[in-house]
């Protein structure tokens, strides 16, 4: 809902209020957080009155203002909303509100402020949209009017939201290949905690989701203010605090696209639109943030609606060994355990016998596939499964026809290419001819083989990413990102049923910009379940399980060398879009039987996991994890109790099961379809021994409030608990 009185605007949705004051020169956010209720005019005036601050000593003679477009003119000495110049001039913006457009909705709504800036000569539009799920989306557009002369060089455009003084801790993420989304925490201090992404994609060390919260905020506790840059190119993220505060607030959280020098030059009549920035407030910890983001994604018209098929990917099974007889046996075994989609990974195209050649030549290798891919595709389809194919369209090897014939298509300086990475270089897909070539090749193959699914990979950073077109070497990351979006959009338009996975050396390009166009992410190249438990836990703060690809690998991990038992490997994949990346031709009959049981379990719980709420428990020790999926109505749940390593305590103590209703009655049982976990104990607890034998009735107050003493597992073990409401 919304209220408006004398340009005091109040948007409300899903327990969130956004109050904006448009009575001044530039609008201000005077409240973003918990729902304030249906404020009348007096209530709105009260919020406005209490948003003013003291005029400090040794400070401007009027109280500083923190507006939606912060500038030095207002006394704001932090990061400015706009950076740029007009031939070295026009560097001190002074925007003035000229128009307000309000779109009232029952749940949320939008307001757009139009500002005119005589100093820079720019027209500015800033749209705030509060979704029915309580997610605040902000996007800014700056336009150089058609009449003036000259070019405005845009250096930066930052979107910021204020947060209160009780938000004292910062959490975001870093990582590396096969260890994405590793959390890091630090206190809010004066100055800026700033992260800049210069990889041409979010990267495996992506900040991913920047959060500021009350002390010791966790999965289920504390207030959290979070931000995500919904964009697939270079990015800026920051939390900033000045001693004088930000209006009535303490700090700001913000970011935007990281622009390279000369990348955006606005000629008369041209515009720049910022990435869509998502801001989320929760009073229920990080799980509350996830609830809002998941709900927003699931409301999209393009969100996957059909059951997420069980996948087999060939990479860790055969690598580059594309012999039809071997692949045919793999396909037959996949069908026998209940696989629903087979994806042929790298190695199918011309000259591709290892990773040093062929990339960019998207024609089927006649030497390996004399009859094309048809014999394999037919075998997959005859067994009732879908067919998917791996591509890496944005990359090439120098040992390829593409690079030899079209060196001008490389995204690299005119003076020559720089360092290779994984023997590959970047194709400038913003080059019209390169873009058209890729569209034609991918479109032709999708059409010929009626491909259901593309694994779209991206295996290196964009270093020295400059385009040789358009006169001189110009920065090219932004154009590359826009061209990627256009290429995927066109393929989707031509093939409406086509699904695409975004992969970038695993989880190096996971953002809500690329996910407007793709249907799932490959969270990591690491299938080690010990690592995956953590990677998936943090990935799920932004994405619901049905968008997160997770495959069971061989007993010995390809990436870490660690050996893990089958029940732990299989249980880890259940809470995602599950699949297999294992040479099934080497499996024993017992292993295949366990895989069949896992396949049946996935189908049984797929509706719950892919439509329910993802929950995590706050535990005393990082060696243990408790996470699960709970039906939206609270009637059913599946939990995973996992141990990653040993810890000093021998007992867990009582652990509440998150997401259940304390006022209801439930029953609980242990699901050991995948085999029994290895326990580091003699027996018990009593409820656990009983639940291994069958259903145990327990009040919701015991399960959700008091909690259950958990069994003590050996490292790299997991147990599944099923919960149903007693009616």
UniProtKB/TrEMBL annotation:
Q: Give the reaction(s) catalysed.
A: Hydrolysis of terminal, non-reducing alpha-D-galactose residues in alpha-D-galactosides, including galactose oligosaccharides, galactomannans and galactolipids
* Glycosyl hydrolase family 36 N-terminal domain segment(s): 27-266
> CDD domains per the record?
GH36 (cd14791)
EC nos: 3.2.1.22
InterPro entries listed in its UniProt record: Aldolase_TIM, Alpga-gal_N_sf, Alpha-glycosidase_related, GH, Glyco_hydro_27/36_CS, Glyco_hydro_36, Glyco_hydro_36_N
Could you list this entry's UniProt keywords, alphabetically sorted: Glycosidase, Hydrolase
Instruction: List the Pfam families hit by this protein, alphabetically.
Output: Glyco_hydro_36N (PF16875), Melibiase (PF02065)
Name recorded for this polypeptide: alpha-galactosidase
| Species | Lacisediminihabitans profunda
């Amino acid at each position: 809902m919304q209220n408006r009185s004398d340009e005091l605007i109040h948007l409300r949705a899903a327990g969130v209020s956004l109050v904006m004051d448009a009575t001044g020169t530039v609008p201000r956010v005077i409240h973003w957080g918990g729902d304030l209720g249906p404020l009348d005019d007096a209530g709105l005036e009260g919020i406005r009155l209490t948003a003013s601050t003291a005029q400090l000593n040794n400070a401007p003679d009027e109280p500083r203002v923190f507006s939606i477009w912060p500038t030095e003119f207002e006394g704001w000495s932090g990061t400015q909303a706009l950076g740029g110049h007009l031939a070295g001039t026009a560097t001190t913006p002074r925007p003035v509100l000229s128009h307000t457009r309000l779109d009232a909705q029952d749940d949320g709504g939008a307001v757009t402020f139009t500002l005119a800036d005589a100093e820079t000569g720019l027209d500015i539009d800033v749209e705030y949209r509060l979704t029915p799920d309580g997610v605040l989306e902000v996007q800014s557009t700056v336009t150089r009017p058609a009449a003036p002369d000259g070019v405005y060089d845009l250096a930066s455009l930052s979107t910021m939201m204020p947060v209160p003084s009780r938000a004292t801790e910062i959490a975001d993420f870093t990582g590396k290949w096969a260890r994405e989304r590793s959390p890091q925490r630090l206190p809010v201090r004066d100055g800026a905690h700033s992260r800049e992404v210069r990889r041409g994609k979010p990267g495996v060390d992506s900040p991913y989701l920047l959060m500021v919260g009350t002390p010791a905020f966790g999965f289920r506790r504390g207030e959290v203010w979070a931000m995500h840059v919904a964009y697939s190119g270079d990015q800026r993220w920051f939390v900033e605090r000045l001693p004088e505060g930000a209006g009535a607030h303490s700090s700001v959280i913000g970011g935007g696209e990281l622009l390279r020098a000369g990348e955006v030059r606005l000629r008369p009549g041209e515009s720049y639109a910022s990435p869509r920035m998502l801001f989320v407030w929760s009073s229920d910890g990080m799980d509350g943030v996830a609830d809002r983001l998941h709900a927003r994604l699931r409301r999209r018209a393009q969100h996957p609606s059909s059951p997420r098929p069980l996948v087999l990917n060939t990479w860790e099974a055969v690598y580059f060994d594309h012999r039809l007889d071997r692949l045919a046996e793999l396909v037959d075994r996949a069908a026998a355990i209940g696989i629903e989609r087979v994806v042929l990974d790298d190695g199918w195209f011309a000259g591709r016998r290892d990773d040093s050649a062929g990339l960019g030549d998207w024609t089927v290798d006649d030497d390996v596939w004399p009859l094309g891919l048809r014999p394999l595709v037919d075998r997959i389809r005859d067994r009732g499964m879908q067919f998917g194919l791996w591509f890496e369209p944005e990359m090439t090897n120098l040992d390829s026809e593409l690079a030899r014939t079209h060196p001008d298509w490389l995204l690299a300086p005119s003076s020559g290419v720089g360092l290779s990475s994984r023997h590959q270089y970047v194709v400038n897909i913003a080059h019209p001819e390169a873009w058209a070539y890729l569209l034609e090749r991918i479109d032709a193959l999708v059409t010929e083989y009626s491909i259901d699914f593309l694994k779209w990979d991206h295996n290196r950073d964009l270093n020295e990413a400059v385009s040789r077109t358009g006169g001189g070497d110009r920065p090219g990351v932004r154009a590359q990102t826009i061209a990627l979006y256009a290429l995927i959009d066109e393929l989707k338009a031509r093939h409406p049923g086509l699904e695409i996975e975004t992969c970038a050396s695993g989880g190096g390009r996971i953002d809500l910009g690329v996910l407007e166009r793709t249907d799932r992410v490959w969270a990591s190249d690491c299938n080690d379940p010990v690592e995956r438990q953590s990677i998936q836990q943090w990935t799920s703060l932004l994405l619901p399980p049905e968008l997160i690809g997770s495959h069971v690998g061989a007993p010995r991990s390809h990436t870490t060398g660690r050996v893990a038992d089958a029940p732990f490997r299989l249980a880890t994949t259940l809470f995602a879009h599950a699949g297999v990346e294992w040479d099934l031709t080497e499996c024993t009959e017992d292993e295949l039987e366990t895989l069949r049981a896992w396949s049946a379990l996935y189908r049984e719980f797929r509706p719950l996991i892919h439509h329910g709420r993802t929950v995590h428990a706050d535990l005393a020790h990082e060696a243990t994890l408790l996470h699960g999926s709970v039906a939206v109505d609270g009637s059913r749940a599946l939990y995973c109790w996992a141990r990653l390593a040993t810890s000093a305590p021998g007992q867990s103590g009582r652990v509440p099961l998150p997401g259940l209703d304390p006022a209801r009655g439930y029953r609980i049982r242990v699901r050991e379809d995948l085999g029994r976990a290895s326990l580091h104990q003699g027996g018990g607890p009593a409820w656990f021994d009983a639940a291994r034998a069958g259903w145990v009735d327990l009040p919701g107050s015991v399960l959700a409030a008091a909690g259950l003493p958990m069994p003590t597992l050996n490292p790299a073990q997991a147990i599944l608990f099923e919960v149903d409401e007693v009616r």
